Amino acid sequence: MDTTSLNSGGDLERFRQIVLEDDRLLEQLRQTSGVESFAALGVELGQQRGCAFTMDHVRAAVQEARRARLQRWI
Questions:
Q1: How many domains is the chain built from?
Q2: Among 12, 39, 64, 72, which one is least packed by beta carbons within 10 Å?
Q3: What pTM, to 2 d.p., does this model score?
């Protein structure tokens, strides 16, 4: 596994924590329509806060969250 992938995952988690502590950021992301616009905005907002991750990282995280939510429901 390459270190870029590991760092990106860490940056995504760090950004997630930033968002959870900032209602304004959370609302900006909630206003998006669909995974693609959510991922694009997430990458942009993350970069502004020194977090480096890709749209693919965001898509994978969204997919994993959906899977976890479905597993809890079943």
A1: 1
A2: 72
A3: 0.82
Could you say which DSSP state residue 69 is in?
Answer: H
- Reduced to 3 states (helix: H, G, I; strand: E, B; else coil), residue 60 is helix
Q: How far is CA 38 from the centre of its chain?
A: 8
Cα gap 61→15, rounded to integer Å: 12
Two tokens, residue 51: 């977090």
Read off the pLDDT of residues 29-49 as tens digits, 9 standing for 90 and up.
Answer: 999 999 999 999 999 999 999
Transcribe 12-36 into DSSP letters.
HHHHHHHHHT-HHHHHHHHT--SHH
CB atoms within 10 A of CB 5: 12
